[in-house]
Structure formats: structure tokens, C-alpha cells
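Notebook entry, structure prediction.
Reason for the run: the old model in the group folder had no record of what sequence produced it. Starting over properly, with the input documented here first.
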Amino acid sequence: MIGDEGEQIGVMPPYEALKLARSKNLDLVEISPTAQPPVCRIMDYGKYLYQQEKKEREAKKHQKTITVKEVKFRINVDDHDYETKKNHVLRFLDGGDKVKATIFFRGREMTRTGLGRQILERLIKDVEAQSIVEFRPRQEGNTLHAILAPKKTAAEREKEREREAKQKAKQEKKLAQEKEKLAPEKPGPEKVGPGDDKQPTPVAAGEAPNPVSHP
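New structure, fully documented this time:
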């Protein structure tokens, strides 16, 4: 028997345990029925269910749903179209999603399945730094596909973004400090030399100023 504070009460008959729980307006919950004797605990069962549900909701907030994005290729894909689709694959992988690279064969293209396999193998090699191959190219009917998964977990990608952001901020701060050092200094107030600070002699009240003679 375990009390509502987690303390060990000891072995007691079921009716006494139930009576004790009711005296505290709580519930008697069997938490280990296979033990000998079975283990029960006094608790607020409604509150316990609410807390468990709250924990599950919080856990779901931090979970990312992994989806499978499909990128379709053709066996006659040109280099520009291939690069565009490859960038889509890299963007999906960076977002934490899996990618299904697919090639459809139409009509006589079924005789050139080897060319389609070469395209998928080329893609696997080009994105190997960011991906893990879950399924190598396999053919099902007139479809050839491969499945790629992101190499880094969501937590690792988030840490990498934070590290890059900190590094960028540090570089910007350093550039700002260098610009400040190279900026010209603002001119200060001019220094007054000896004799330059003489004030004009004041004229006493009622005294006429000395006339200035002109030649």
C-alpha cells in the first residue's frame, strides 16, 4: 500500500485501504496487480488522468510528423530539369521529410529501364551527404523508385541552425567593429593658444571711446 504522498504504508486488507482512501476523498488505484500481494496507491485518479493527457499533448507538440515527398523523373530528363528536381529533394530532406524518387516508364520506355536506374543512382550519389538510402532503386510494374531519408534528426538540424546563426551574428559584430575602427575621427574643438583668449577692454560708463585717426 502506497499513500498519496508516496510513502509506504504497508500491507493491509482491501477494505481498510479503501476506507483510508475515502477518508481523504481520494481513490484507491491498483498499480501493480501481478505483484504478490498486489500494490495499490491512494491518489486523485481524475487528476492523474488529466496530468497524463497533458504530458501526451506536450510530447506531441515537440514531435515532427515525417511525411514522404515524391519527386518524379523521366528517363529523358535534361540536366537543368534534373538539377531543379535534385534541389527539391535536398529541400525536402533538409525539412526532415523522406523522399520517394520515382520514374514512370511509358510504352517502349520499358525497354530502357536501365537508363532510369542510372538516373536514380546518380541522384543517390549527388545527395549522399544529406541522406540515407532506405530502399535502393526497385521496380514495381512500370515504376522504378528509391526512398531516401534525412541523415540528421530534427534536433540535430535545429542545433546546426542555431550554431550557424550564432556564427553569423559573431561575424557581423566583428565586421561592425572593424568598420568603426576604420571610420575617420570626428574633429574636436580647436585649442586656443596663449594670447588668443584676450577679451576686449571694457569702456567705463560716460567715457567716450578713443577716436580713431585716419590719415
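Summary: The beta strands are 27-32, 39-43, 68-73, 98-104, 131-140, 143-150.
The old model has been moved to the deprecated folder.
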